[in-house]
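Students often ask why inverse folding is considered easier than folding. One informal answer: many sequences map to the same fold, so there is more than one right answer. In these notes we will look at a single instance of the problem. The structure comes first.
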């Protein structure tokens, strides 16, 4: 790994559907967390990993332990939103993803957040990421200061 490796960032574009809005045409707040999930799955796909395969082939899950979202500006029906997703921290049994939602037309920050995940097995007991996954996740961090620690 080179000392100036950039972190992997995924950008996924979404168009706000009518069903995602409230009576005022503003996106209902819980949809931001759904969009975070879309970004997370697409980031993993960009990294060459399929979450479905992780579950089926290895019996591993990355369960959400904590979710945070800071709303910065309203999002409206039919707007195009870019979900930017990156890894913030990777340890053997904990993964933290960071997110930004931005307006596609202006780049204005709409929301930002993070989700913390615990790696579990099929019995929902804490487990460790096998090296085949851990090395990919750590490589996608780039050199942002987060390390491959224990736990």
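Output (designed amino acids):
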């Amino acid at each position: 790994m080179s000392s100036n490796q950039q972190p992997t960032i995924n950008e996924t574009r979404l168009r706000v559907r009518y069903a995602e809005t409230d009576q005022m045409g503003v996106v209902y707040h819980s949809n931001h967390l759904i969009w975070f999930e879309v970004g997370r799955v697409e980031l993993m796909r960009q990294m060459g990993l399929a979450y479905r395969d992780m579950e089926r082939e290895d019996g591993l899950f990355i369960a959400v332990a904590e979710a945070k979202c800071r709303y910065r500006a309203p999002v409206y029906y039919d707007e195009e939103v870019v979900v930017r997703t990156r890894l913030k921290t990777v340890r053997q049994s904990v993964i933290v993803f960071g997110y930004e939602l931005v307006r596609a037309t202006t780049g204005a920050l709409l929301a930002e957040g993070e989700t913390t995940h615990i790696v579990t097995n099929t019995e929902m007991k804490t487990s460790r990421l096998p090296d085949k996954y851990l090395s990919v996740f750590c490589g996608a961090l780039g050199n942002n200061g987060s390390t491959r620690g224990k736990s």
